[in-house]
Amino acid sequence: MLDDRGAAPLGELETRVMDAVWAARTATVREVCGVFEGDADRAYTTIMTTMDRLFRKGLLTRVKEGLSWRYAAVSTREEWERALAEKLATDLLREHGETGLAAFVDAAAGADGALLDRLEAMIAARRSRP
Amino acid sequence: MIAWLGLGLGAAGIALSAGWALSVATVAAPLLVERLPVRPARRADLLVGFSALPALLVAMLAVTIVAPSVLHATGLRVDHCSVHDHHLHLCAIHHPDAPPALVAIGALLLAATIGRAAVLADAQRRASRTLGDLDALARPASLPGVRLVPGRVPVCHAVGVASPRILLARSVAARLSPVHLEAALAHERAHLERRDPLILSLLPWAQLACVPGAGRWTLSAYRRAAEQSCDAVAALAHGPVTVAAALVAMARLQIGGPASGGFAFGETDIEHRVRRLLDGHAVHAPSLTIPAGLAIGGGLLGFAFAAPESLHHAVETLLHFIG
């Protein structure tokens, strides 16, 4: 289950590592390095550090396989995107709601089911008028 | 250099003091404007005007006070302040010793304003970053200008200054009926037509010229007027009853799911909007904020640049009487 640490935007390398793990379902550091073959900056230690960081963020789990770890994603890509989008949207509306956003309606303050029932009754009465 | 610093801080003290005073004097203006029997779009235009007045005053005074010295120093125009000597002089050329009290006030107010500007810039930078991250997860919808966002938070927002667009949660698109969804999107497109994301981004900057907190009522009132104006636009295309029903349907999604939080209109804002729609008071008018704002603001600042000496002399005389 994805927690708050995992529902956070990823850096470029983290994104590419997660893409590799999602595509393979499980992967070791060596296997992910194989995906980056030809990319001069992606040394084994860099990938290893990144995957360890993703593990500590709660995005990956791991089991020991010989001397190395085999990693798997905690959630699917869709689940992670959904959790991240919910966190970002909540942050945006709660902390930055006054900064350049124009909403269709914000019923968060004061509206409840009873009020909405009354409004729906008003609308129904208006519709039934000739 | 010291003379110029003194003049600059003195100008800041006078200009910002005037801006703060005007913002206090007009703090109740939003309440009066909301009672005017005019269309919501016109109310929104007036509220932007009231919001911008202190900032305009600060800019005009700053230009007026500093301009004669700058023009004289650059050889463009001779400053005649040495000719008349019966009042306070704000001049870096002929009177380099600005009044210490004025310099101190200017330094304090300028420091406070710069601090507030830094906080505002940081808040907008973080909001922009969060919006960018959310946008990266969104996918284009089949509807033009709409991007679908995953998740249950009931997003239905017009956003973006440079690239205006509508962010719509997939959950909202799935749960609203097609008719209600179209009405909601018509409302959001009206926000983009009015350039509300741009105006809502700029208004807090204009309010830096006001006493802290003085601009909040104006901002709230502007949002209410903008929402009612966009309701009227949506009602033209889909009928007021449909728009009212869409408002209620969307509100049900919000109170039923994760809190959308954000800006609070007031306890009966949705009720007020529904009543206006059903009573036939949601009447459309185009927004004049940007063209009128550019014309009036540009005109006043242009006047300050074109005739700085007479305004400068008037400010000095007024300060002399106040002092």
Describe the structure.
With 130 residues, chain A is α+β, with helices and mostly antiparallel strands. Chain A has 5 helices and 4 strands. Chain A has helices at 12-24, 29-35, 44-56, 77-95, 113-128; strands at 26-28, 60-65, 68-73, 102-103. In chain A, strands 1-3-2 form a 3-stranded antiparallel β-sheet. A 4-stranded mixed β-sheet of chain B has the order 1-2-4-3, sandwiched between helices. The interface between A and B is large, with 42 and 66 residues. Strand 4 (102-103) of chain A pairs antiparallel with strand 3 (156-159) of chain B, so a sheet runs across the interface.
Quick gist of this model?
Chain A has 130 residues and is of the alpha+beta class. In chain A, 52% of the residues lie in helices and 13% in strands. In chain A, a hairpin with a 2-residue loop joins strand 2 (60-65) and strand 3 (68-73).
